[in-house]
Specification:
Distance between the termini: 53 Å
Shape: globular
Largest sheet: 8 strands, antiparallel
Radius of gyration: 21 Å
Helix content: 25-40%
Number of strands: 19
Strand content: 25-35%
Amino acid sequence: MKKIMILGASILQLPAISKAKEMGLKVIAVDMDKNAVGFKEADVALEISTIDISKVVEAAKEYEVDGVMTLASDMPMRTVAAVAKELSIVGISEDTAIKATNKALMRQSLKQYNVPIPRFFRVSDYESYLSSAKQFTDKFIVKPADNSGSRGVFLVEHYTDKASIDYAYQYSKKYSRSGEIIVEEFMEGSEVSVEILCVDGLVNILAITDKLTSGEPRFVEMGHSQPTLLSSEIRKQIETVATAAVKAIGIENGPSHTEIIVTSEGPKIVELGARLGGDNITTHLVPLSTGIDMVECCIRVALGERPNLGNPIKKASAIRYFETPPGKIKAINGLEEASQLPNIKQISFVKSIGDYVGKINSSSDRIGFVIAQAEDAESAIRVCEEALRRINISLE
């Protein structure tokens, strides 16, 4: 029986753990949380931090794993690379892992290969931050060099707004693990992500996902849909830029999730991860839109096997997240009615009655979502929106 090590055992990694078990594999799950939900399904549960490289490598050697992966989390990528190197199994290189998890190094690498990116500065102290801010005469974005899920991202509306500039620095710095932050050009345009699977250096683009965000100033993702509604000409430009980015970072085997904004100058890279996309994009939307089980494909690639990417279906899917004002959840009504709508595939909540709901400052603040499948993206979006309207969340 082949053995796969999955870094992370939270709800985010559960689809990979479940799929690996379904495939008849022995699953070694790693998570520092002893109560991680995925531990219940795994064959072996190891209470180790997914970023404790030496301990994870030691465990991988002990269990003689045949493959290693993480699903939708950036930080364990360096551990994945280290395990792959030490055990001579399929995975990304350590250099690629660093470039894919540090936005400053990522941008430098993309710039070196002439991949379109926003104008940016990497800073680690207040003086150099102010100096960089003065280089902009319009809006600019401040973000941590090494975090995800919109944590620490803030838009400064005007370069003369000292209070906003100071707040952005402190807010972004708080979420930066290394202390380094990025100050970059604010890009306007349609935002998409590109879901890719690389096999032996061949870049397979499986889907282009349209994004809906909360907008200024934090840009938290509130919805996704596939396939993109953009024109075929724009789609080709997006595919060209995404392919160049993946090659620049050095991903040869495994997934990538590349975020792009289509500016007036053409598509530019926001960032990319050497992993599957989160927010149910690759676990739910890609299979519903294309018929391709991206999680299974990634497990097969990690094991050194060939994934089946042939004969995709042509459907559409969408996800929309609930938006509520702050308060304590008193009641949730209309769930049954909404779940019976044609084409609704899933309605889920991550918070319960009695839980407090705050402002949506990052993806972890969202309380739940609805997912739909239809013949086209517009229809899938309409079904999601109708389901949201039928569900009444009472707050106090």
